[in-house]
Amino acid sequence: MNVFQAMATFVAVVETGSMTAAAERCGISSTMVGNYIRLLEERLGSSLLRRTTRRQNLTAFGAVYFEKCREILSLLDEADRMAEAAQTLPGGTLRVTAPVTYGTESLTPCLADYLLQHPSVDVDLVLTERSVDLTEEKFDAAIRLGTPEPSTLVCRRLGEYRMTLCASPDYLARRGEPFTPDQLPAHDALAFPYPASSPMHWGRREWRLEGPKGKVAIEMRSRAVMNNTQALRKATVAGMGIAMLPADLVRDDVRTGRLRSLLPEYVLPSRPVYILYHKDRYSSPTLRSFVNFVVASLGGVSTQMR
């Protein structure tokens, strides 16, 4: 016997006043209604209804059981609604990983709006330069710089990670401003030690630019090498030299005059930015809402790496 169906049938009998009306409400026959009531009474070992030729009344136990049945069925309906909502509304904890500078300067400012739109979602953001394993380390999504290695992960492009050459007004006042790439070697370079596996591995020993005369590579002597972009930015603001820094990182410095962009006719190499996730997890409303939000906020074209 389906106990919940029997309870619902019993409640219908009481609320409608007859087995015939209860049968119509429940979409079953009057005989089935009678069977449910009989089986329920046998299961409980007590009568629920006093039956007469004209009407049915609740027994003392039946009245108490009726209220409990209504309470239980109400809770069951609430649980069903919660389960349905879980399939359609974002909620729970979302684990995301991103590179330190991009995550700090580009992704984090977007998260406030996302969390306002989805109050039932919590975000666990891990910033690291390491390429984490999404499955092994239980991440829902990862943001990566550069073209991802072939895999079964879905990759959606978020735009370009652009660099800029910049220096402080104080440094330029002391050393002069370079207006062509061939003037750069006379200046103090501040460099980031990109690993050999990075597409920017050349950044420690030379700067590559593209401008009116095509691509040029300028060999530089690094006056200082720092493995943290925030430290490199602070050194540049302090007037230690010229640095190649992420455009997002120094945007406010350039706008307020703490730093000045150099060689505006030349473009530094950029790297594509991707968000990666497992295809089968995209059905989750939480992950789907986050991916769609980030793509809309930071731009994007969908592709799958093979």
From TrEMBL:
GO molecular function ontology, one term from the record: DNA-binding transcription factor activity
CDD domains per record: PBP2_CrgA_like_8
Biological process annotations from GO: DNA-templated transcription
Pfam families per the UniProt record, alphabetical: HTH_1, LysR_substrate
Domain annotation HTH lysR-type: ranges: 1-59
Signal peptide positions (record): none
Entry keyword set: DNA-binding, Transcription, Transcription regulation
Family note: Belongs to the LysR transcriptional regulatory family.
Protein name according to UniProt: LysR family transcriptional regulator
Native source species: Gluconacetobacter azotocaptans
